[in-house]
Protein: Dihydrolipoyl dehydrogenase
Amino acid sequence: MYDLIIIGLGPGGYEAALTALRKGLKIAIVEKDKLGGNCLNRACIPTKYFWTGAHNIEKLNILKNYGISFNGEANIDYSIAWENKEKAIGFLRKSLANLLKTKKVPVYKGNGRIIDKNKVKITNKDNAEEIIEGKNIIISTGSIPSSVGNIVPDGEYIITTEDYMDNLKSLPEKVLVIGGGVAGCELSYIMNKYGVKVYIVELMDRLLPSKNISPEISKYLLRKFKKLGITTFFNTTLEDYKIKNEKIEVKLSNGESLEVDKILLSVGRKPNSDVDEIGIEKDGKGFIKVNEYLQTNFENIYAVGDVINSPMLAHVAQYEAKIAMENILNNKKVSPDYSLIPFATFTAYEIATVGLNEEQAKEKGIDTISGYFPYTYNEKAVDESQTEGFIRLIFNKSDKTIIGGYIVGLGASELIHEISLMIKNRFTAKEVHEYIYFHPSLSEIFVYASYDIAVGKLF
Amino acid sequence: MYDLIIIGLGPGGYEAALTALRKGLKIAIVEKDKLGGNCLNRACIPTKYFWTGAHNIEKLNILKNYGISFNGEANIDYSIAWENKEKAIGFLRKSLANLLKTKKVPVYKGNGRIIDKNKVKITNKDNAEEIIEGKNIIISTGSIPSSVGNIVPDGEYIITTEDYMDNLKSLPEKVLVIGGGVAGCELSYIMNKYGVKVYIVELMDRLLPSKNISPEISKYLLRKFKKLGITTFFNTTLEDYKIKNEKIEVKLSNGESLEVDKILLSVGRKPNSDVDEIGIEKDGKGFIKVNEYLQTNFENIYAVGDVINSPMLAHVAQYEAKIAMENILNNKKVSPDYSLIPFATFTAYEIATVGLNEEQAKEKGIDTISGYFPYTYNEKAVDESQTEGFIRLIFNKSDKTIIGGYIVGLGASELIHEISLMIKNRFTAKEVHEYIYFHPSLSEIFVYASYDIAVGKLF
Structure:
């Protein structure tokens, strides 16, 4: 009998395992695919690897500022980046495997199904079955790509983001991306910088159409996409497509016709929750239902990450895993607090948000006042020759405390934690403004974005 | 009669001016040299410009990971970097000048001397004199390079860091740097990456010999310097030198002889405090004495920045300027709090510290426990192919609250503010560990550096 069985070793499962091992629990892991889950193998980590490449291609033109030049143009070879992406995630996967091996943690390779509140049946790829027992179970089985309407992925012409990461070793000439959300915008930028002509079709009227992304961000990103030559179609769907002579003829709802080599589907993800035969409750969308302590309707069975209805982000899964572990280990139960989840995406810009934006605050009936500052005059950004971008900080109008903020530009995905910590600290605009930041640093954008509110306007 | 006269328009003076203008004060500025002070023209900003170049040269070898290659080797031309450095700081200087012009702020070009508690006499370069009157005065005249013993800068063979930034348009073959402190280590790295053979002579037994720099950091940096081919001599001084055939023959106290093209003096700075004829009090080292409200012995005359005895950092000057302005504007006086000043330096690594290190805590009688994590396993660092470096977080042993930390590696100068805000928040190791950071981000090093203390050891 194990103390804990973890089904699915993505970010949530991994975090739970690390904590359990440190607490001396006897654990077992069930994983049907590669260690590290979708995040490590097909999403967060490989996209940021490719993003580094894309961003470096974009930055080649600033090297000359520093007296660095080459004879002739750069040679760009995506297939080399792909191989090295494999090496990078292979290294991380191996570190994980080595750790589990050193700690003698059994990893059951196969599909895990909960057949009793303390039993998991594992079926491996040869259909051999094994049953293991545990006092507690954590379900961290993640999510799988959604599809829409008549568009059926075939892994060849119509591919999902997972197909992309698993198999696309070289890039075609033209790609139509269905969905201008996070994954769509990230892969569009990567493909664009590696030489692909990219078209995006988006059902809504903007890029990154999500509540936590202010329209101001979508507009700023769109301007850049246009400059990069990425073509976007909004309020549009794919009406029909036909595969002919290794090309896809596409008809859009706005009347446009295109010929592309591949269609990339990035229309969101759905929970991978078909994991039991004991009646674990799910909601209408298939998410496993959990209570405030992340317990399912069986109190010894917890669920964390994409498989429950909370933000589908790796760090949310990790956070929930810590909460679940605390509840498994202690009698006094704790609940997750989702108010300060940083969000970031790496596309033509690094974009990050935390807390409430003005639209979200308005919905909650909070009057806001906001401060803005462009990177143009930030000395560190000038030194790095990367002055595109801006910051907006959102304050409660009545007491001037900071309630949210977003950053578009260099370092956004790290700087966002400073905003998060300032919200946590209940900083007023004056405190944000007077806090001591290193000079010169990108963090000084906080000083200037809060100046008007903290001290008064200059003009 | 002005409301405020600001003598010296470096970071302190500039910050005071910005706040004063927002508060509607009638101000005048006295500046004998370029707007922006030493920081903008000869220190913080140009060094980070050159650092970006040096770092980009170092990073050229990772481009291939992402399928980016060139025909042949890179051509490195320092003089182009120098010209563009001039353009970058010129742009920032001009922004500053335009702002002052738009706000119709008189800028008196010349040497300012306080001749009465409300009067400043300005002598311009033609020896013409002018006297202006102000209700309040802020002295923000900064500092000038120190020299040592028998080594007399001549601007040609023996140069200061200011000579370097003002005049060194191309680099010689061999340079001896006197002083392995911040400026010495920053310029040594820059010159090394731009092809210079660099020797460092340091009186103490390590690089960056300062209380806020843990020996662990000095050691880590030294290992890198050796790898880069920078030669260091510790516990050593320059005994003698002779200029002969456009070369300098140098004799060191350890018996070594060298032949170099230039000697760069970077042995610290001293206050530029000879600014009055009314008996403003100074200490034994020439720093202007101020009380807890940053007032001199004349209550309407304040002093901020390098000219007073507080850490010689641009952001400290800016912070002090805000405090001085608050005290000028309000009856209720406030005092600066120096406990959370971030420090950063850009040399072969980005290095940053805040709060107390273990050595400093011990001196204060605080028992500590610390957590460490190398960049090696940080997924974002792996994605960026920049995995050198580490973090150490220092906690109070008794209650496990965070009291300090330092980072060596990518993003250190920004991430350090997160530590600062966590100290401000009085976070325990558990709170540092459970805080939600974006995945993947460099900020996740905080999760892992606090794991042992928050949850328990893995091995």
Q: What stands out?
A: The two ends of chain B are 70 Å apart (CA to CA). Chain B has three domains: 2-145+270-330, 158-267, 349-455.
